[in-house]
């Protein structure tokens, strides 16, 4: 039987380190909805799917300086 591959879940600290920002910044983004970076709540823990982090980066990537 083939088991589906589960998404890689990253902690707030891992994502913050990857993005070069403080973990508190991610908490602010979550609370005010400033950026569309989906997160998963597992009890009190907050996790981010690796593919969502990559998608967020793709959406934020600019090819020119007009925006």
Describe what you observe in this structure.
The chain is α+β, with helices and mostly antiparallel strands. The protein has one domain (9-60). It has three helices and three strands; from the N terminus they run E-H-H-E-E-H. It has helices at residues 12-19, 23-32, 50-60; strands spanning 9-11, 40-42, 45-49. A three-stranded antiparallel β-sheet has the order 1-3-2. Strand 2 (40-42) and strand 3 form a beta hairpin. Helix 1 (12-19) crosses helix 2. The longest helix has 11 residues, at 50-60. It starts with 8 loop residues before the first strand and ends in a 7-residue tail after the last helix.
N-to-C CA distance: 48 Å
Classify the secondary structure makeup into a structural class: alpha+beta
Q: Characterize the overall form.
A: globular
What kind of assembly state do the chains in view correspond to? single chain
Number of domains in the coordinates?
1
User: What would the average pLDDT be, to the nearest integer?
Assistant: 91
The biggest sheet amounts to:
3 strands, antiparallel
Write the layout of secondary structure elements.
Blueprint: E1 9-11, H1 12-19, H2 23-32, E2 40-42, E3 45-49, H3 50-60
Antiparallel strand pairs: 1-3, 2-3
Summed up:
This protein has three helices and three strands; from the N terminus they run βααββα.
Which keywords apply here?
single chain, about 70 residues, 3 helices, 3 strands
């Amino acid at each position: 039987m083939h088991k589906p591959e589960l998404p890689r879940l990253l902690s707030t600290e891992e994502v913050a380190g990857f993005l070069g920002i403080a973990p508190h910044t991610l908490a602010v983004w979550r609370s005010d909805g400033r950026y569309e970076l989906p997160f998963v709540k597992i009890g009190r823990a907050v996790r981010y799917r690796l593919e969502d982090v990559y998608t967020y980066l793709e959406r934020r990537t600019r090819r020119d300086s007009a925006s």
